[in-house]
């Protein structure tokens, strides 16, 4: 742990041993730690010199000299402040380099707000910008995926799990094709359980990831036939503002994939969690066969449950079921967009 303050492994081991033992004669140092007794005086001597230079060790003038560890509460604060200063300097230097990088990567005025990322680096870049998130990440999730299994299914986003645990808000809109993938609903369920706010729509306009409303990444077409497709990294600009607006508009019109959240929005539920999940998938445009596979039931069960919802609502078609669900709050606030905007293509077949 002390390595974070700029100490080597040997320096940290020796300092901890001296703190625990108290003042120690120099000739007894190898007995303080099994590691030093094995490696000999070379690493031990280097550790002594390093601790002395950092102010963590005092040598007396006696013969043999006695070694006294400096108080941790005093020197620790000094080392920490020094390390913070070094990190701030490094961050400033990286900021200057980033400005140079963006300005040299593109020619012409006004293009520094967009940076092209080749396909091979897309997954790494998406991971990097997510790890700097401190407030919110907004995602349009749809295949194809940069990190995918042989059959094209998404491998999962471990970085999202880490950032959710750190308190970062994630809002994701899933395309119908993402839900249709093998294990798609199960994958989404893991994110929801970890704290993600998830919604679904029949068709997304593009893949999208926005971090803290300060940086985004979208698919990019090649500039020429010899350049592969990749992604465009979007920095603060009117273009990024437009992408944020697009996300918010799509989010407001999408259907929630979290029945538990919907129950909180609509109060006393008229349908249970299983029925809410089924209704969401129906209105997202998935076929009965795909819904059956995702829910782990037979196709006839899907048909029977759908007919039961239609009978309860007193309607004859699934489109009418969508209107009824929106007007009667069966899907919470996220379902009201169906009543206000009308999306027949998302209502499935009769």
CATH architecture field of the largest domain: 2-Layer Sandwich
Number of helices: 15
Low-confidence stretches: 106-111, 224-228, 335-350
In total, how many domains does the architecture comprise?
3
Spatial strand sequence of the major β-sheet: 4-10-9-8-5-6-7-11
CATH structural fold name of the largest domain: Endonuclease, Chain A
State the distance separating the first and last CA atoms. 63 Å
* Count of distinct strands: 11
CATH-assigned homologous superfamily of the largest domain: Endonuclease Chain A
- Shape designation: elongated
The percent of residues in helical segments reads 40-55%
Rounded mean pLDDT score: 78
Please summarize the sheet with the most strands.
8 strands, mixed
Briefly, what CATH class of the largest domain?
Alpha Beta
Compute the gyration radius: what is it?
29 Å
Give the H and E element order. HEHHEEHEHEHEHHEEEEHEHHHHHH
Beta-strand fraction estimate? 5-15%
């Amino acid at each position: 742990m002390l390595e974070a303050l700029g100490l080597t492994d040997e320096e940290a081991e020796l300092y901890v041993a001296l703190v625990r033992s108290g003042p120690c004669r120099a000739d007894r140092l190898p007995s303080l730690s099994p590691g030093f007794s094995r490696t000999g005086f070379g690493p031990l001597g280097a550790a002594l010199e390093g601790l002395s230079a950092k102010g963590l060790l005092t040598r007396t003038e006696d013969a043999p000299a006695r070694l006294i560890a400096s108080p941790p509460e005093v020197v620790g604060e000094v080392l920490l402040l020094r390390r913070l200063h070094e990190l701030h300097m490094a961050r400033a230097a990286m900021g200057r380099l980033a400005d140079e990088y963006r300005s040299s990567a593109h020619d012409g005025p006004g293009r520094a707000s967009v940076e092209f990322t080749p396909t091979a680096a897309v997954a790494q870049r998406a991971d990097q910008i997510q790890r700097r998130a401190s407030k919110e990440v907004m995602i349009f999730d749809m295949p194809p995926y940069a990190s995918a299994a042989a059959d094209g299914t998404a491998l999962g986003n471990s970085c999202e799990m880490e950032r959710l645990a750190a308190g970062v808000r994630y809002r994701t809109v899933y395309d119908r094709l993402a839900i249709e993938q093998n294990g798609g609903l199960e994958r989404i369920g893991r994110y929801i359980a970890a704290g993600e706010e998830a919604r679904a729509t029949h068709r997304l306009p593009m893949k999208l990831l926005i971090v803290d409303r300060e940086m985004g990444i979208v698919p990019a077409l090649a500039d020429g036939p010899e350049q592969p497709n990749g992604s465009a990294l979007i920095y603060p600009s009117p273009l990024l503002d437009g992408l944020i607006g697009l996300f918010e508009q799509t989010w407001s019109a999408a259907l929630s994939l979290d029945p538990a959240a919907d129950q909180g929005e609509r109060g006393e539920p008229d349908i249970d969690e299983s029925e809410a999940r089924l209704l969401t998938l129906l209105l997202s445009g998935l076929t009965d066969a795909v819904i059956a596979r995702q829910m782990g039931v037979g196709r006839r069960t899907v048909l029977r449950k759908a007919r039961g919802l239609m009978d309860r609502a007193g309607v004859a078609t699934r489109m009418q079921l969508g209107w009824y669900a929106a007007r009667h709050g069966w899907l919470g606030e996220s379902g009201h967009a169906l009543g206000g905007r009308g999306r027949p293509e998302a209502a499935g077949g009769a």
